[in-house]
Write a structure and sequence with these properties.
Elements (H helix, E strand, L loop, with lengths): L4 H14 L4 E9 L2 E8 L6 H7 L18 H11 L3 E7 L3 E8 L12 H9 L6 E10 L2 E8 H8 L5 H16 L5
Parallel strand pairs: 1-5
Antiparallel strand pairs: 1-2, 2-4, 3-4, 5-6
Helix pairs in contact: 1-3, 1-4, 4-6
Length: about 180
C-alpha cells in the first residue's frame, strides 16, 4: 500500500520501465495551493480498453504480478487525487507511450505526505534496465522560485555504477541536498 506521494511516483516510474520505456520524465511543480506532476514515457502504451482497465483496482496486466490479480498503483493515485478535489489526465496510445498529469492542493487536509522524495528518487534512478530518467522539480514559496533537474545519464557519468553502496550513499546525499536547497542546483 502506498502511504506517500513519493511512493506513488516510484510505482509509476517502475510501471514505465516495465513497459519498456527508454525515456521517462517527471515534472513536479509546486506553488502555494497547487502541486502538479507530469509523468511521461515512451513505453509500449495502452489502447482505450487498456487505459480503462488500468484504472480498475481489481485488474492487473496478466503476468505482471505473479500470484496476484490486482493493480492498485494507478487506481490508488487517481482515487487520492479525486479525494483531494484535484484533477488527472491519462493519455496513452499503443507504441507511443503514456502521459499522466495530476494536480491538487497539497495543503488539503486529506493530502498524503510527500514522503522521502530523495529515497524514492534514488530507487527510481537505480531500477534495472537501460532507460533515461529525467526528474525536474520547480517550487515557488512566498514568491521565491527554485528549480533543479537531474538526468540518470549524468548521474551514471559522475558516479559510475549506481548500484554500488558507495554510489548509493553519494546519490542519496546529492538528492537530499537538492531537496534541502533546490536553489543551489
Amino acid at each position: 500500500m502506498h502511504w506517500t506521494l513519493a511512493d506513488m511516483l516510484l510505482d509509476l516510474v517502475h510501471n514505465s520501465v516495465q513497459a519498456n520505456a527508454r525515456t521517462v520524465s517527471i515534472d513536479m511543480s509546486q506553488a502555494p495551493g497547487e502541486l502538479t506532476i507530469r509523468i511521461a514515457d515512451d513505453g509500449k502504451g495502452m489502447d482505450r480498453r487498456q487505459r480503462e482497465r488500468a484504472l480498475d483496482p481489481f485488474y492487473s496486466e496478466p503476468g505482471k504480478h505473479p500470484g496476484r490479480r490486482v493493480g492498485l498503483g494507478l487506481p490508488f493515485l487517481v482515487q487520492t487525487v479525486q479525494v483531494l478535489d484535484g484533477w488527472y489526465r491519462l493519455e496513452s496510445e499503443p507504441g507511443a507511450g503514456t502521459t499522466l498529469e495530476i494536480g491538487f492542493d497539497p495543503d488539503h487536509v486529506d493530502c498524503p505526505p510527500l514522503g522521502d522524495l530523495p529515497e524514492a528518487l534514488a530507487a527510481m534512478f537505480t531500477l534495472d534496465g537501460e532507460y533515461e530518467l529525467e526528474f525536474r522539480r520547480r517550487t515557488d514559496k512566498a514568491g521565491e522560485q527554485s528549480e533543479y533537474r537531474i538526468l540518470r545519464s549524468e548521474l551514471r557519468d559522475a558516479l559510475g555504477e549506481l548500484e554500488t553502496i558507495e554510489s548509493q550513499v553519494l546519490l542519496r546525499d546529492f538528492l537530499t541536498s537538492q531537496e534541502a536547497d533546490p536553489a543551489s542546483a
